[in-house]
């Protein structure tokens, strides 16, 4: 309760800050909008008009006197005889003009603030309104309902009814615009006709579509690389908080994995697999500014997402495109009446699949069993005293909750031909299913585009985002509950003495800390472009981006368990600021010469400077926990720190393309990149690519195959690079942290922590892509297949130097190793409209194979150590990167007789039998420890039959990433109803179930979980197939003996298919809405993670699949203690005014 | 636009310069920088002369396999010290001290001594290690080889210390914590003893003794524990007995002693019973004391107890302990080394509590708990402690001198110097009346000077050497791996292990040194493993 009050004050701070930003923004808005103000001026300027017996010219004079309007007219066209006497108050100009001009004879229009009055030519139809009716059909003759029919340049319009017909009052000289999703928009001169029937043509996919490709756009027919494109309409319909969630299942070749159920996180995205050591995340470019996060953009602010997958497409981003590029283009203003849209939803979250954990009594029962299994005489828990434990609750339900989360979004957009703007504000309140865990964010985006002259255009985008994330104690406590003692309660309302009497040495459960992160990010992005001549545009993008993060961690003093728990109130603060300044100068050529030759070219000079700095401070000894403020700690305990780093990049990009007769497209691009992280000698690198496309459907012979309406063949090759190493590696830097104590006081020491190393160069990768795309059955059917291959060489990785180097930081980044990734991507989709029903279904399937071609530690196998040290991976030439490598568990030793029968006479290293000092043979048993196993231990397979289970019996057991990824999506629309479903499935990957539980891993991951506890071996014949060994307490201090060495008893396939989202919406009819002043209203409901089909025994195959715990580097190891992914339902509305 | 291009014009734009760190080229220019460079050479001692190093007194591993699980951490620190010394010795000579050559030479001498000291420690455990005396590039590092034999290292150490010694200061003129002439003399003597060059060893030990810079403390309890119930934790810090000592301060990570709660008998508050009383070294002590005694009873699980005086409530801890029968010879140093059943030890930090192992409840399962380096300040509890750590003290000098005399055949002189140490504990120590139980006075064995330690007698050593071994082991139990150093010097590891009753099969006679860290061997094909592994 107390905390809430202060939380409120934080919120207030946030609002104040927001207000300040809004003031600034208003100013900015004023500057930008001044150009379109004429339009607003005419609408909003109200004045009084008072004339008596005045001619029309005198009336105009009076208006010019009292307003800023001016008039242009030909006096000989005006009726100078008519005299006006007007006394009107508080009127706007349009009202006046309508009053004084005979609309049948005169028309007027605004040019800026000048009103041009013209006489209507009497030769054409008089400006009388006429009634036009007609029917809209498709090429097959079927009626199309819902087609928008609008008089051009007005809002006067209607939609076709169920039988495709319409009726509209229109000016006889107007133009009618017919538009419908998936059809070509058509314009028809009315010219007095009263019946206009239209046959709508399906839009030939791709021909007119423009795709963002980085530093420019291309028509789809000109695309030669492998690019997945997801349009904003798709994203807008799925009410997700993050774009990444919407990409799952919709874009092929893209793996999207939720990290866990925690709020406010970006999912992990891998484009075409894991092609390099360390960070293999794609580059995210938002409106041309690289280096963003997907969560920075509200999904329904996105106009399109393009995913550049192959080198030909991504070369344009050179050093940063090596892992693929995600281009986000946000929505912008448009030429038309200002539209206001409200979008909001409420989301209900519930933990779908809570772990069933053992009750305290059962745990003690099992502890007894473990001791008995060890042959121990003492069974301290096997006394009637512990009967009372039956009344103790030990689950973690106090920590989780059902929550609701909401979003409000308001957007305003519109403009005229010259000036357009868009303004949106989004507020998300995302509440985690653990108590005291939330993510609140507000995003404000303002963008405007100005065609200042025929040649000069200016665009800008300003984004401001503020977020507050809190990780309370609950999740840590949850992990502790799972990791430590199932008979301890999470809170102290249990009996704390229980702790004493049962066992010491276990850490306290009641973690108490609040971890608040306040972030505010803003991006200024201004782009000017100048058309030098037709098809040749010079432009410059200037962007400044700043991310401020203020992390406040407060640890509460523990009132119980003080010895190893927190025994002080401490507050720490970390203020980090990162900024980058980007400038891209671009020259774009796009011209067609004659009928058949079209040429495109791009030259970019790109510079970027990134800076990071931080200040941190800490104090302890805060007397009370009610106010978690740093300044309340003691000054003696105060510590602080700070730091700075920067790096710069320069890129020179050239792209040249030639298209012959729309048939053959060839493109080549080259990017020359420099990064400050390399020494001057190694600084520059060149990344070339060539690609080719053949639009087969343009060939005459294709006319003989009428059912193929579109066909394209693509091929590409390219090289990319990476500069992922620490800044300043080639400097020899002094470390000042190694002082000493003289006379009981501290002195500063100085040493060189890391000698300069200049040997590191660019990491490179080379990839090819071959693709075929087919459209059939009047473009209703789409099929594509891609084969790709990506070879990463000279990877930048940290090499650990020998210890005798004597360096405090003994890793350096060096080049080495080679990884090959390859795969196929298939996509099949069908869309159709039948009567009121229009629908589309799509499926995509990506296969993925990864192989290490060489590894710097070629002599042997690199065993990978990870947190908790499961040692379950190896990297070796000829195997997947991070392949599971372990001994084969083939059952459980059932009896002593079985064990004795299996013993063998041990051989020494020289191959001779071993004899003990007394001359008796040394016997061994096929267990890893070489000791005699006991019944209930896991039995390991002796792969080489040498009688010893050792390192030579390790075998490869699969991989940590899927070999097949499946995405399914379906959309239906019927009479205002819409339904969309997205499914994602991953196949062919495994996860090693392993709990850290610190040094004391007696609770093997999920010993607290009933599943494992009850699957255990309890005696001869109790279990053999389910390889859960006997319990053990002594010695290794583990519940389960045989757990120590990685073996496949706990390796499980994580194949799954999951219905990620399903959304049902209904859009209300306009006629009803007009009465209440709305254009359209859509209400919808969505469900997330509704169904999962899997045999995986862990908590969640998507997380268990390994993208769990703390980071991707730990992928493949399921530590059980992940934040459960909630099942969520949404109710929302989209209202357009 | 053109302006923007020029703003970012390439070359300067691409040079990013670290702004929150010094570059080494420009840093090592001043006297202060030189001093900092030398401070850094001292720094690794903070990281291994703490409880990690203390564990080296556990010769249990050493006896059987000469393998210490966390040996790599210690090994790393030695090399860090050597590398830092190489940097200091490369940079300092070029620094202009503006005429203050004394300071310059003093700093250089310290760095040379410390580098030699680290090499001595490395070679003591690993034999011939690579001899790296300058900063090598990453490529050069890869082609380094181990020294041909251990004397290459030992001779280097001797040469270096001989060069440094004249420029060091004697204890009386030196700042606490800095290496002194005495340190250098003792290191020389030690290495000569490793080389069995007894006359040279005698010369340098005698120099220390004759310098009158050092003397034994009158109270053994103050050597690295405390005897009184004072809230004073510096009883043994920088005393006249201290020859070489690692300074720690409280509450600063990296500068504290690294014990934190280890060995800490809690704050005795009664609520806090999760004390991590470490039994780790009791086994060793016990073995020293019980050599030859046949009845060592062991139980699986024992407890010690804390008693809240006011409530009488038992506060228990449970740790696997090896039991100790009570009828062994009481050495007066034992209660300062470890605590056992029957002791009444005042709680260090709260006078309301005391350790009572007298309760009949726990009589059956008596335990030994390490006592040296117990915290002596209530502030220390639950915090990073700041107790200094002794590397060498004057008792080393005296006992080494006794050994040299023994080696030279001067048995009378051996006993004369040995008894200087022994009599402090048994005779001269004024407060030897150790409280066994409240109000009960413990009388030491009157024949303390005639004790025979039977097990080692069985090993074939003469009484003169056995007495010396015991004197060393009893005096230095739990102190900085001194006993390990002795066994490496005496090369009698196998005899001791046998005397301690280790199974023959677990003793590897062909091992001279510790196992060379295998990860290091993997990184450098030039390296060979030590014999016996």
Verbal overview:
- The complex is a heterodimer of chains A (1137) and B (533).
- Helix content of chain A is 11%, strand content 45%.
- Chain A contains 14 helices and 59 strands.
- In chain A, strand 25 and strand 26 form a beta hairpin.
- The two termini of chain A are 41 Å apart.
- Chain A has a 22-stranded antiparallel barrel. In chain A, strands 15-20-21-18-19 form a five-stranded mixed β-sheet. In chain A, strands 8-7-10-11 form a four-stranded antiparallel β-sheet, with no helix packed on it.
- Chain A is mostly beta strands and 1137 residues long.
- Chain B has 533 residues and is α+β, with helices and mostly antiparallel strands.
- Helix content of chain B is 42%, strand content 8%.
- In chain B, the strands form four sheets. Chain B has a four-stranded antiparallel β-sheet with strand order 4-3-7-6, with no helix packed on it. In chain B, strands 2-9 form a two-stranded antiparallel sheet.
- In chain B, a hairpin with a 6-residue loop joins strand 6 and strand 7.
- In chain B, helix 12 runs antiparallel to helix 13.
- Chain B starts with a helix and ends in a 10-residue tail after the last helix.
- The N terminus of chain B is likely disordered.
- Chains A and B meet through strand 30, strand 31, strand 35, strand 36 and strand 37 of A and helix 1, helix 2, strand 1, helix 3 and helix 4 of B.
- Strand 35 of chain A pairs antiparallel with strand 1 of chain B.
